[in-house]
Write a structure and sequence with these properties.
single chain; 60s Ribosomal Protein L30, Chain: A; 4-stranded mixed beta sheet; 13 helices; 15 strands; 31% helix; Thioredoxin
Length: 366
């Protein structure tokens, strides 16, 4: 079966895997040859009209037509049923609030983290349970990979060229998960933000890799959350000096312990906000390099040696999810890129009604 490349038909004697490597269309892993039949199946799922432009992708500002979206999905190994998720994720990433241009070009490690909520996650078989951030699930892996291929092939952010990341992190291959709504004792993330449980959403955050939170001792919310506060409170992440947003992922065992004590999402976020942070003198490196005045900190923060400086400047900037398997008292903290990017929550069904008027356009900049 022949494959389509740049409007040309490649002969059956060509090694397609090697051909696409030579063309520079790969993220470093072998790609699935995008045959006409596979491309058409994805375009149908998107509503037809292959030339329709869904968005423009920074930093090259290439046009993401439905055909190009389909080609990258096929190369990533996606099923056609994943198309609404990939499209919604790209619309979230190209929302001006997200600042994809900056995320793509930064020297920081940040990569877009995509979290899917609602019925579609189960319908396409996404994993929010054991090893959610790891390997072994086709939907998680290929949806995230399709997004990265689009960022490379349409956005042009190739490492060392327009992508200036000093180190990067493994999420720059694929960084897509679902919340474990079926087993979570807390309301789903998208419901907390005004969507109905029967609606499906994507959440996008420019993020570092997950930082492990280990606590096998505490049998109350305070002990678990104090450990999370400890992991958050460092001087090494971008958020420590640049504020912005952060994701907190509660493992099932931790989430159930917290919920058994009657705590809800708001209680968790506010406790974390009130009890995390660093001393200003530590952020200033003891003033041994001269007087430090961080203009990224809110003006009303005291800049005295032992003043506690929060990493996150608003409890609403802590994005709480429940994920993971049945066993293991582990959670995770995922620092963001800083105040330069605002997370975006977007419905996967563009026609879905939203309960809050300020989100009627379908985009909620949190």
């Amino acid at each position: 079966m022949n494959a389509i490349v740049e409007d040309d038909v490649v002969g059956t004697d060509v090694d397609l895997v090697e051909y696409y490597y030579e063309k520079g269309f790969s993220d470093g892993l072998p790609v699935v040859p995008p045959t006409p039949e596979k491309i058409e199946a994805v375009i149908r799922e998107l509503g037809g009209d292959p030339d329709y432009v869904e968005c423009k992708v920074a930093p090259r500002w290439g046009e993401l037509t439905r055909e190009v979206l389909a080609i990258n999905m096929v190369m990533a190994g996606c099923k056609p049923a994943y198309a609404p998720i990939v499209r919604a994720a790209m619309l979230a990433l190209t929302d001006s609030a997200f600042n994809l241009n900056g995320v793509q070009a930064t020297t920081h490690v940040a990569s877009p983290l995509i979290v899917v909520n609602g019925p579609i996650a189960a319908e396409v078989g996404m994993n929010g349970g054991a090893n959610a951030f790891g390997s072994g699930n086709r939907a998680n892996a290929t949806i995230g990979r399709a997004i990265r291929l689009i960022m490379l092939n349409v956005g042009g952010a190739w490492p060392g060229d327009l992508d200036k990341s000093t180190l990067g992190h493994p999420g720059k291959y694929t960084y897509c998960v679902a919340e474990n709504e079926a087993q979570s004792p807390l309301a789903p993330y998208h419901v907390e933000h005004g969507y109905r449980a029967g609606e499906s959403t994507v959440f996008a955050l420019a993020a570092e890799a997950p930082h492990s939170v280990t606590n096998h001792v505490s049998n109350d919310p305070e002990g678990i959350l104090d450990t999370i506060c400890s992991v958050m409170s460092t001087i090494g992440s971008n958020t420590a000096v640049l504020g912005g947003h952060m994701a907190v992922v509660l493992g099932l065992e931790h989430a159930r312990t917290i919920a058994q004590h009657g705590w809800n999402r708001s209680d968790v976020r506010n406790y974390i906000f009130m009890n995390h942070g660093n001393r200003f003198i530590d952020l200033a490196y003891g003033h041994r390099y001269g007087k430090v005045y961080n203009r990224n900190l809110p003006k009303w923060y005291k800049r005295e040696d032992h003043t506690r400086i929060p990493i996150i400047h608003d409890p609403d900037h802590i994005h709480l999810f429940v994920m993971g398997g049945e066993a293991g008292r582990f959670s995770a903290v995922i620092p963001g890129w800083g105040h330069m990017s605002t997370p975006v929550l977007k419905p996967i069904d563009a026609t879905a009604a939203h309960e809050e008027p300020d989100c009627s356009s379908g985009t909620c900049s949190l």
